[in-house]
Structures are given as C-alpha cells and as structure tokens.
Amino acid sequence: MKLKIGCIPGDGIGPEIVKQAKAVLEKVAQVYGHEISYRHILLGGASIDVHGIPLTDEAIAEARAADAVLMGSIGGDTTKSPWYQLPPDRRPEAGLLQIRKALNLFANLRPAVLYPELADACPLRSEIRRDGFDLLIMRELTGGLYFGERKTVTENGVRRAVDTLTYSEEEIRRIAVKGFEIARKRRRKVTSVDKANVLDSSRLWRCVVEEVAKDYPDVALEHMLVDNCAMQIVRDPAQFDVILTENMFGDILSDEASMVTGSIGMLASASLNDTKFGLYEPSHGSAPDIAGKDIANPIATILSASMMLRYSFDLDQEADAIDRAVKAALEEGWRTADIMADGCRQTGCEQMGRIITKHIGGSMK
Ligand code: IPM
Ligand code: MG
Hints:
Largest sheet: 10 strands, mixed
Oligomer: single chain
Strand content: 15-25%
Order of helices and strands: EHEHHEHEHEEEHEHEHEHEEHHEEH
Bound molecules: 3-isopropylmalic acid, magnesium ion
Number of helices: 12
Low-confidence stretches: none
Mean pLDDT: 96
Number of strands: 14
C-alpha cells in the first residue's frame, strides 16, 4: 500500500519524537511491504519563524493532499518565547486551531490507559486504581467556546472580554454518532458529559445525545455533569468507557485523565473528520524545557502513528505490531526519564525509538 503522510514535527520536543515515530513506521513499511512518502508541513512556532504566521494556506493544502497527518507538538514557553509577543491570532496555538477547523477535524479521540507495567507511576492509590482502567475521551474539537465569537471591548473605561459558547444540533449529532460508534468497538458504554444544570448549550447537547442513543440500543448511555466527572475520574476511573463531551470540557478532562495514568508521555490521540483522513499527535505538549536533550518520551507519538495506521489506513495488523513492540520494550524494563521506576533501565528518546523499532516484526520471524 502507498501511504501519503503529511508530517508536522512542530516545536519543542516535536522534531525528536516525530523522528522516532518515522523510524518505527519505516520498519513497519519494510516488514509489511508498504511504501510511505512524507510531505513536511510547517505549523506553530516553526511556521512563524519562517513565514511570520503559524499556518499558511500552502500548509493547509499540503495537509489536505495527504492521506493522514502525523504531528509532534507545537508551542513554546509562553513566558519566554518571542512567539507570545505576537497578537493571539498569530501565536503557535492559533495555527493548531486553524488546521483543526480547516480540515474539519471535529472528533478528537484521547485514550487514557493505565499500562500494567507502569501502574506504580499512577498517582492514585492502589485501592482506587484496582486492576487499571482504559477510557477514551471523545472530545468535540471544532465548535464551542474555542470557535464562538470573541472580543475584548472597553465600555466607559472598563475592559470587558466576551467568549461565546455555541453548538448547533448537527455539530452535536455528528460527534455523538462517533462516540457511540467507537463505544461499539469497546465496552459499549457512553458517558455524556455536560453542564446541563446551567448551560443551554449543554441542555441541547443532552437532548441530541439522547436522540442519537436511540440508534444504539446496545450501548449504555449515562449523563454526567462535568464537575462531577472531574471528581469521578480520580475517584473511580474504571467506571468509564467512552466519555463524550464538548470542546472545552474535553480539553480539561483529557489532561486530568492523562495525568491519572501517570504517564502522559505514553498517550496518543487522533483527530478525525467524516472521511478516513486524520491528524495524529501525542496528547502531551511540546515540553520546550527538555527539547533537544534526548530525554523526551517518544512513545505517545509512536502510538499515535499506530492509531494512524488503524484509523486512516485500516492497517490493524501493522498497528498491532507497533502496540506490541511498545509493550515489549516496556516489559524489557526500558523507561524514559518521565516513567522511570526502581529496577528499570533508563534510556533516551533515540534509544527508546531504536528499541521499539527493533521489536517490529519480531513475532513474524
Ligand atoms: C490540546 C491543547 C490545545 C487545546 C491548545 C494548545 C490550543 O491544550 O490539544 O488539548 O486547547 O485544544
Ligand atoms: Mg489541552
């Protein structure tokens, strides 16, 4: 198969982690007989440095021309980097929001899994984490507060800022459908999270989710208020299968969910539209403080590459091979600094990439 992949190394640790994910993909291509071509795309600070803006029309066109996009991370130190002297709509993050919108990537899948090998890194007590957990946050990504009208005005000498939270029923329906579809491939439970005791947008959300649920009688649906959900994630994370929620709530809950796994450096994500196209990136940020030191954990990006093979190319066998190779490296005791534990062997970004690459195809021999 020919795979046309757009590649956005981005900022901070982005380039080094993407390099390792590409090495793993290259090995997959060799072992399984595929041909991968990359188009390099600038986004975020890397684009500002060259073009003065975080995303150009050419970059959007390049991404559109690809079958899928693999991304590292974008952004810098908000207190130190000159990128943050620019107006808000010219900063690195603005480019990320623009590409999500331009490619209609409305469905953001963020799995939070407690790996048994890393259970000790979980900050939850053992009686809370019990046998581990495996939840997936299905976050709406192109609507809500992030994309509603916003402005800052001065009235009678007093500054006032306005952000608007708006959702149409179509926007809610299409993400709800994605949520129920993915629940069918998992443990068939959807927890729809909102703030329906206060917000109109949440009351519409709840109503449309109920409508969609009628087409999925085999999937259990429950509603949960977002503040309660934030609490339940640290009280009993194993109760969740798919958490379906709007953009801002999903942003916050997904950071929380990834933290309780104790290994944010391990968590992948996929942003999908209505086609097979997707943008795949680690759930963590660009960690500018450790960039270039060869200590970043490349696993989240490598697992994002696995999600890409699975969702955009239907190459499940190849994706399984990557997931197994990651597991094998962990079982051998290899750890990057962020997940290091007693009795394990500490390694850097490059070497972790090499070890995982080595394990690809191992089970075929
Ligand atoms: C994320 C990030 C982004 C978001 C930022 C960088 C704009 O926090 O992907 O979760 O808020 O969506
Ligand atoms: Mg976030």
